[in-house]
Amino acid sequence: MQQQSRGWEVITGWLADKELKPFRFQEDAWKAYQQGHSGIVNAPTGFGKTFSLFLGALIAWIDAHPKDYQRKQKNGLQLLWVTPLRALAKDLGRAMEEVILELGISWQVGIRSGDTPLAARAAQKKQMPEVLIITPESLHLLLAQKEYPQVFKHLQAVVVDEWHELIGSKRGVMVELALSRLRGLLTQEGRPPLKTWGISATIGNLDEALEVLLGPYHSNGIIIRTNLKKNIQLQSVIPHEMENYPWAGHLGTKMLPQALPIIEDSQTTLIFTNTRSQSEIWYQSLLREEPMLAGALALHHGSIDMELRIWVEEALHNGILKAVVCTASLDLGVDFRPVNSVIQVGSPKGVARLLQRAGRSGHQPGAVSKIFFLPTHALELVEAAALKTAMEEEVIESRMPVLLAYDVLLQYLMTLAVSDGFHAPQIFEEVRQTYCYQHLTEEEWKWILSFLTTGGDALAVYDEFKKLERQGDYYYCKSRMLAMRHRLHIGTIVSDAMLKVKFMSGGYIGVIEEGFISRLQPGDSFTLAGRNLEFVLIKDMTVLVRKSNAKRTIVPSYQGGRIPLSANLGRMLRRKFNEALSRKTKDPELLALQPLFRLQEELSHIPKDDELLIEKIDTKDGYHLFVYPFEGRLVHQVMAALLAYRLSRIQPITFSIAMNDYGFELLSDQPVPLTTENAKTLFSADNLLTELQTSVNATETARRKFRDIAVIAGLIFQGYPGKHKANRHLQSSSSLLFNVFSDYDPQNLLLKQAFNEAFFYEMEEVRLRETLERIARSSIVITHPQKLTPFCFPIKVDSLRDTMTSEKLEDRIRKLIAVNS
Amino acid sequence: MSEVFYFQEQHWHLLPDRAIFWEEERALILSDLHLGKATHFRKAGIAVPAGITSEDLFRLQQLITRYMPVRIIIVGDMFHSRENNEVQYFRIWRNQFSHISFDLVKGNHDIMPEEVYGQLQISTWPSLTIRGIHFIHEPCEEHNGYQYTFSGHLHPAVIMAGPARQRLRLPCFYFGLHCGILPAFGHFTGSATLDPSPDEPVFVIAGKSIIRTQ
């Protein structure tokens, strides 16, 4: 039998000496690895997922060199370990080094991320370590180096850690592309196929996750699951004064006094908030409420200086912190043993995320993970009840992979062009083997190439576009300046246009969104990393500040802070409203909400499973139309645009559109022409595709999506870090580029991608169709409440709004002049 | 549809193409064309659409044939950056109007060597005063001794808000107490939001119309 190999003996023997016995899934993974399979290991955190693959790689190494596996040095890069978080790399590396040391193997473990010092990089260039832990961005940077194939000459396997986190993002696409190139290299050189393994927490579409990792045409991929389970307890903290608890809001600081006892009773508590601004506010409020926490309370989010974050993580390990307020920045990673309770402020909007966060406490196998849910407004308690049931029934959402991200492809091709150049037919073949680009057409490919060589439709003879040169099918970048700029640019794929924040006197604090700073005047105060800062000026892409003594400061709101509700949770939510209505519920959350439900019933109605509730309310703001499909923000966004468009064809009318996870609002200055008679038609699924296209083109959402796309595709010039003179003549906003492309190059694929990302991700279109079909089978209940209802209130106060109009611009202006004079 | 604004004892035709025709002087006044900007980006490998400059010049050409000005006053930022092929395109374009004088009041983007402007038959000025009306690129905040001043630089826009959370942001002509600001003529330009006092005349550009909002 193969597992009785030398490597198997060495590893199991080593474990036995430590009185450890491998889990079943670990042995399964080793076997599969030995047999040359690729695949995904699926196990909860805290059960040694890392060892299932790292030891597998070591077994293979020992098997290949049974006599001198310990002595052999300088073997070149054997194993590439991709991790989404730089913060994870260090601990991971330490754990691997320990194993290697104890086994007496002469391997080196290296780390490559944005934080790796230049000297270490140079040393790696001379002699690659056998194991390299790397972020997706740094992996692409390796591909951007001259003679990069040399680096991968001895590569056996790639492991992608936390694959569930990467799969739904463009960083996941970066991994797909890098893998396609590595596979291509091995094939070219006639080597045995690359082993590719993913490590993933449970998600609804694990089979699809495997296809994304290995490409849709793979043949030997397997999924190794474990039946080990985490024991998770979710407890809602019910507001003491339910009657007075706000109907809307997103901060939840009212619940702060009820959070303090939890912190007190626990060794260390992680307090998860959904946005960075919320975490800043909670940090400040906690200190105000309980000054004793000073020194034992820390803040951790993605905009805080890396060094400070690393310090917080170390302090968490050492148990010197009582509590840390954090965002998704601490979702992942190694365990902090002292953490024994987790508080979630506001809805986590999905079961998977809740499980992940709960798992940050009680990390040891068998321990109970406790998570306390603090609602930020009353209705969120329904979400808590829904989450609890979804958890019990193991309804976990899927992470939808990104499709046809032209922006990332443009970046990738530029990456290959600045290193050794590329042969277009070969790369096209490789790219089409990936999940993301499996449906990329020849025509789109040609467009992409021409965008890089001639800058798109350049008909003018006097054009001077410069990026890539071409000799037959071979594409390369001649300009050293462009190459340098591109290498600097690769790391920016995840961030919006972010500016560094520094003290006048020096000293780095963190980063902040350009959009936020542009609204500030010099002298204004804002909060970042728990400090109050006064804005002085922007210079060379850096925001200079000094300490502020202001009492009131502005807390920056970061884009992308709003996480939409998943489809599963939406379904569960509708079920909970039904239960609440039946008055037979035993959920403490729903029982606590009974007064609120009674009021909703009194003022309007609570929809049953086969009903769609629409509320028409007139206030001094105008004529409101509230619709409650309970399908989550993403679906509501599309539905709202569609309904607004259909209504605006009845008569010239202008709408302001708002939405949340329960429903959406159309607000107009004239009565909304929706009646019992036309309601069904307005929600019909007929002509869905064409009408959707038209309606969403008229809204702002695509413009917002274009921001990221423009950055990734290299259209936004970010300046050179450390260079004092930023080239001002090359700066433009993504919004201006969006206008220019829409006016002069409407066929541009990047625009198409913006619209796709905004609305046509397969999932949302399918969900919308399903929703409309469900509505077609339901009865529509229209009420005319005299006052704002508990349901509508959270939507009405939402400030992120979209507009849809069928009125002539001149008419709108005249109306506005008339009301303002 | 243009709007004739009688102001400072002169007739100003405010044009939806983001320019002013000054009747008494038979002059077209423009600001912030940023000619050559697209090419400047494209030379640096940023693939913005080509041809924006020629579209802008085509609009200017139409204004010239319609209003037959004797001179064109540009209140700064005529060219976006260093010399490039779009500047050469302008040279050819310029030849069809050799009888019209071009007066450029230099802005912060006008950095080409002086002889290039000479070759393009453009007279350059730090500022210009005609009939007591002063032209300078950057707006002045206080009274500067002249009857009135016209500037550019800001690419002004205003926000109009109304009931039902309606909101519109539009490029505009703004007439402050001492200084008026022209909208940017070039299409590859952003804009900055102004907050005018209620007594200052503002004309917004709404597609093909000019509408006075206050």
From TrEMBL, chain B:
Catalytic activity, EC: 3.1.-.-
InterPro entries for this protein: Metallo-depent_PP-like, PdeM-like, Pesterase_MJ0037-like
Keywords of the record: Endonuclease, Hydrolase, Ligase, Nuclease
Gene3D superfamilies: 3.60.21.10
GO MF, one example: endonuclease activity
Annotated protein name in UniProt: Ligase-associated DNA damage response endonuclease PdeM
Organism encoding this protein: Chitinophaga solisilvae
Gene: pdeM
